[in-house]
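User: Okay, second chain of the day. Same drill as before: sequence in, structure tokens out.
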Amino acid sequence: MEITLTHGLLLVVTGFLAGIINTLAGGGSNLTLPALMVMGMPAEVANATNRVGVTVQSITAMLGFHKHGKLDTQDKGPILLPTILGGFIGAGLAAYAPSTLIKPLLLGTMLLMALIILVRPAIIAPELGTPVNRVKDTPSSWFWLTLAGVYGGFVQAGVGFVLLAALAGSLRYDLVRANALKVFCTLFFTLSSLLVFIKEDLILWLPGLILAAGTMVGAHLAVKLAIKVSPKVLKWFLFLMTLCGSVAAMLSD
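Assistant: Same drill. Structure tokens below.
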């Protein structure tokens, strides 16, 4: 595929914005997927190529949160296992299932998250100091984490909201630590889905790497913002992103 200067700038800018959005909330792929498809990629190729940027931004954000002491890894194994398993299942579905399923899944996820934040904000944004639940003591977390992995492997766009529902809602991490664990989980299940897409030869590497450069810068900036802003600001940013995700899903072809 020929990459023009306009295409390159589009990928860098949308990647930068997506890196910020995905690190602080979710739904950044609502920007990057259309950008990739504008270049003429089929939906399934854009969906696979997008994972290159998601992988790089997740590494950047994870290292940033770890540097600031916000990445809680004491329960990382039990949290990762169901998300990675779900990622493999979701990627397999994405490789063979009709792409027409993506829009209703995305829209349903966005609307449900917006409703939760409005009606029961404590579910998704626990107060600082709330005791954290361990996975082994919270059976429901296995369901939510596996669901997040399947959804992320299949759609990717909006998976951050599903992960936050599991990490903040079920396991009761505050929003900063939930976001840190979210990018940690996203990295590993995205890697698992990336392997499936590589095997199926669905990735266009040059646009994927250009996109990744933008997401890396955005994720680096977003970690600094997450450490400094108040939980209330993070909660309303999350709500705003769910509304944007809902509009994007409704307007998409």
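DSSP finds eleven helices and no strands in the chain.

User: Thanks, on to the next one.
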